[in-house]
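Students often ask why we bother predicting the structure of a whole assembly rather than each chain alone. The short answer is interfaces. A chain on its own may look different once its partners are present, and contacts between molecules only exist in the joint model. In this exercise we take two input lines together and write out one structure for the complete complex. Read the inputs first and try to guess which parts will touch.
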Amino acid sequence: MKSRQPGALLQRSLMFIYLGLFILLPIVAITMASLEEGVTTLWNNISSAQALSALRLTLVTAFIMMIINVVMGTLTAYILVRYPFLGKKIMNALIDLPFAVPTVVTGIMLVILYGPTSTLGSILSGFDLEVVFAKPGIILALLFVTYPFVIRSVQPVLLEMTADTEDAARTMGASNLRVFMTVTLPALLPSILTGAALSFSRAVGEFGSIVVVAGNIPFKSQVASVYIYGELESNNPQGAMGLSVVLLLISFVVLVFLNLLQRQNWLNGGHS
Amino acid sequence: MNMTLRKSHNSGRWILTAIAVSWFMILILVPVGGLLQKLLTQPFAEIYRSLQTATAARAFLLTAKVTFLTVIINMVMGILMAKVIVTQKFKGKLFIEGLIDLPFAISPVVVGFMLVILFGPYGWLGGWLESVGVKVIYATPGIVIATVFVTLPFVAKEVIPVYQQAGLQGEEAAQVLGASQWQAFWWVTLPTIKWGVIYGVTLALARSLGEFGAVLVVSGSIINQTETATLFIHQQFTDFNYTSAYTASLVIAAIAFIILIGIEWLAKSKKEA
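Now the answer. The structure tokens for the assembled complex follow.
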């Protein structure tokens, strides 16, 4: 009945035009353009040693970030919801701080702190640990920009889940760790996975903070997005197509995963 | 026995809290503090002077302009998309919802590249637009389109759940009582989704102020013409003009932070009241 109202069709058409023109058409355009010189050329672009090395670095650093984020994000959400402590309100308000800091600024802050001329940087290089222009710098930048994702995904679920079940298990003699592993964690799993997937896809595409922190050293600190930018800078759009298409594919896969997760969640919710 | 159980529970509690709080401080607060400290050691006159240049002023003005346009477009289209998704049934709805989610998943550099392919001088639409005198890429329209692309989901994503929760009964009742569709939306629905809209707009605004990768590719970073605040910061940093890079960094981050945290605070106090 609703959709037969006057105006409904107009509104829907406006949405289709907006999304079609600004989201769908650019994706179609890059897909067509990448195939213009044939699948072999595209494949050669993707499988060149430098592109593969950039892609590998991207996936490895994003994966390490995701593991750390899952552990620390779940822990942080847990203490923010369950434990009282001094300064909790302030910390809760500051969780979203990374969303307010432009990615270039994140990079600059990390260079100030860990760069070769800084106190901390020179101490670390004494231990042969290079942060800036190296993998640790990339991971730190990714951890900074994705910090809120797991926390903000887990927090509302924990808030809704009262401590009653956990307390009941505890009175029956289960240890804290056992209670967490068998009662709390399974209930949180979908929200943890959602946060993990969101942070992973953000990390795979991250550019601003990494280009400042890690620079653009092929085979060492060059991630996929920086590789694409480098190819564009040196007027080689065809070379940039390969990894662009790969990153797009990764985006689609993560999105489908998130969608399935949501539906699974909804089914479970409908069951209980 | 109960006593020991409580006790071990408490010390575990203390250790876990200490770990999470230290992690937050080391990862987030210390780098922010480092930037602040760097700036505080500079003479104030130099900090002030570093932002007094015409280039800096133009960059900030362009960012303000782009952010304003982006926020307006996002607000109108975000509410519209949420309304269509919640109130209408149509074929391919799942696909449309996926399209709305997509911009968050795509790398900003790839976003910029796609827009260059489409709207660039040799692009499908760019060639035609240029022939009627509209320059998109390497100009302000391109920067606005890129920023709209990366912030597109914010408003719709915040409004849809609130709208769904509010339900359609109120709007339908108002229409039964003789209100037009537009009146029902304006007087009944909009007040209930207000905070969703405000929060979505705030997030979009913070992201617009800080967007870098997509804008970098689309703008060509032409000084005094297509250089936004974040491009200015990057340029100054790579040119070793650290004072102006740090100052501009702080200004942009502080504006985004104050707006974002301020709105969250406001929303929370409104909800509790």
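Check your guess against this: Residues 1-7 of chain B have pLDDT under 50 and may be disordered.
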